[in-house]
Amino acid sequence: MKRKIVLPGSVVGDMKSKKPGRGTFREGDTIYAAQLGILNDRGTYVSVIPLSGVYDPHAGDTVIGVVQETLRNAWMVDINAPYPAFLNVENVPWRVESGETAKFIQVDDVIIVTITGVDESRSIDLSMKCRSCRKVEGGTILDIQPSKVPRVIGKNSSMLSVLKQHTKCWMFVGQNGRIWIKGEEDNVNTLINAIRIIERESHTVGLTQRITKLLGG
Amino acid sequence: MSSHDERLSAVKKDYLVNLAKKGKRLDGRGPDEYRPITIEKHLIKNAEGSAKVTIGNTMVMAGVKLDVGEPYPDTPEEGAMTTSAELPPIASPTFETGPPREDAIELARVVDRGIRESKFIKLDQLCITPGEEVWIVFIDLHVLDYDGNLFDACSLAASAALQDAIIPGERLGKGENRPLPLGSPPISCTFAKYADFIVVDPRLEEDEVAEARHTIALDENGDLRAMQKGLTGSFTVEEIKNNIKRAQIHAKNIRKLLEE
Amino acid sequence: MLIKDGIRMDGRKPDELRPIKIEAGVLHRAQGSCYLEWGGNKVMAAVYGPREAIPRHIQHPLKAVINARYNMVPFSVSDRKRPGPDRRSVEISKVTSEALEHVVFTGLFPRTMIDVCIEVLGAEAGTRCAGLTAAAVALADAGIPMRDLPVACAAGKIDGTVVLDLAGDEDCEGEADMPIAIAPRTEEILLMQMDGHMTYQEFEEALELALKGCREVSKLQKEALLRKYETKNEVAP
């Protein structure tokens, strides 16, 4: 199987047989790629799977954030998006008195949060009331390109299983390209190395098998 | 360069500190291990000398230009040199456009001192007419990719560009072109300290958590020619002495790269 | 004498480009980057963003702001240039930003800015074209959504002959220079500057040549991007 790389402005289909999907645009009857990426035209829609780019926040995503500022009734959180995100005291699992936000989560703390909404002015609301939400303690955070997140997870989490199983590490992959890793030091290094390979070779075929082999599977 | 507003998250910082307690580093290097270093010379036609140096992912371009000017009144028979550094926004999301900030100025001055005090450029051979005309050597450092340890990368790039440089006598109507008269280059070696752990060649994350920094420029005999302690932390006397001894070993190896 | 028997001082024919080399994704810190050599020009371009536009007063409520910064390093030219922006580089930055803004889907990222850094490391006539061409590759490498991959090239006049892509002495002693940038798919003009003296006839000829040059450079841009992203091992070894 060959993956076709398309560039901004490449013709990727026409309106007679396809509908324009993500990463494309139409002019007249022609559909063009809006972004560098892998062409996906298997269904009714033709779309481009990006190979680079910033994190595009969506409601429902679970992400790893770094607290930037403690406000009276909220925390301002960097979630690696082009816009600031806010975690209101009403959306945390504890009762926080006004002005006491820093008692619970401080600047530079790392938290796992879900995005509850992105409004029209692109202001992002966060919540910590989800199962995997928590303040991150121990381990380390690895930053990868957000566009590579789907490859690190794999189809039906296949890559994630391989990585966890063979390195015996705990890992949580945020949709925004931040990965929390916890485990024995040598294992962590092995895991980081494997993730870097996935990131670098994300556009190639047979990656899961190669990573399995690399990790001694 | 801790004054950039980029901070490590608490989790990353703790991880680095915990590794440090075991004498380990983020990328598996030992405390006395440099990242791979590459030096490329003679890249820019309009420069009298140029070089690109990479240390790991850090990439710096250095260019040398010469011009004719007046000597300083106290050294009427010597040429002059000046070193500038820029930290342009291409190299890091935290670098800004505009006049050099104090980080860039400190960087340029430390590099300058190493070159000047080791008498790498033979300024006494750069006189054209005593008291009237001498050659002025401009060293410009341009950071293109920032992944820590700019002091060593810039120092090395400056030395390599000087080795590549000619005196452009023909262009400026001052006789024939000839190589820039040089002695032996200074070698700069930088240490960062965090959590009582002192490492050579700090990469970005190590630069960011560093409490103290120590740059040592040595001549070919391993003698000291310039030093700079930076940042708000401190070193013990023993640590400083030890850094110098460690630098003497590193400098020998790095010097070979410049001689190739 | 800049041209003799239809051959230019560097051996090129009137409609020939200087040698061009393009490499995508060369810097580790930037989101997208490109290194480009075009004759004696050596240019590095990088893209950061979209990210929150700072200071806030530059934010646009409906779209991203393209903030291109063209800079010549002090040793890129024969007489050392003082570091920092001058009037020329401010103007080039402005027209480059405007040209790039036309192709970027800026409406997708209101209130943000996209920084495009262009560093001219070595200069030999035509740096704005080299810079814009490199910037376009860096934008694509950074995954910025665009309706096309812009490209630039100049044509001009030397010794009464209309020629493509003026080099060193041709630029200094020639009679006219006209850099353009286009969206190659539609051949819309995104940037056009001109100085010197050309008749309307000569302008038409120069425009044709510049468009031809753009088409050739556009191919090289695309090849560079595909080289970075297309894999050699399609099947697991």
Could you describe the 3D structure shown?
The complex is a heterotrimer of chains A (217), B (260) and C (237). Helix content of chain A is 20%, strand content 33%. Chain A has 217 residues and is an alpha+beta fold. Chain A has three domains: 5-50, OB fold (Dihydrolipoamide Acetyltransferase, E2P) (Beta Barrel); 62-135, OB fold (Dihydrolipoamide Acetyltransferase, E2P); 140-214, K Homology domain, type 1 (Ribosomal Protein S8, Chain: A, domain 1), CATH 3.30.1370. Chain A has a five-stranded mixed beta barrel with strand order 8-9-10-12-11. The two termini of chain A are 24 Å apart. With 260 residues, chain B is of the alpha+beta class. Helices cover 28% and strands 30% of the residues of chain B. Chain B has five helices and twelve strands. Chain B has helices at residues 10-21, 102-117, 150-164, 204-209, 237-259; strands spanning 37-41, 49-55, 58-69, 80-86, 127-129, 133-145, 166-167, 178-179, 187-194, 197-200, 212-218, 224-230. In chain B, a hairpin with a 2-residue loop joins strand 9 (187-194) and strand 10. In chain B, helix 2 (102-117) crosses helix 3. The model of chain B is unreliable at 1-5 (pLDDT under 50). With 237 residues, chain C is α+β, with helices and mostly antiparallel strands. Chain C starts with a strand and ends in an 8-residue tail after the last helix. In chain C, the strands form three sheets. Chain C has a five-stranded mixed beta sheet with strand order 3-4-5-7-6. In chain C, strands 8, 9, 10, 11 and 12 form a five-stranded antiparallel beta sheet that branches. The longest helix of chain C is centred in the C-terminal third of the chain and has 30 residues, at 200-229. Chains in contact: A-B, A-C, B-C. Chains A and B meet through loops of A and helix 1 of B.
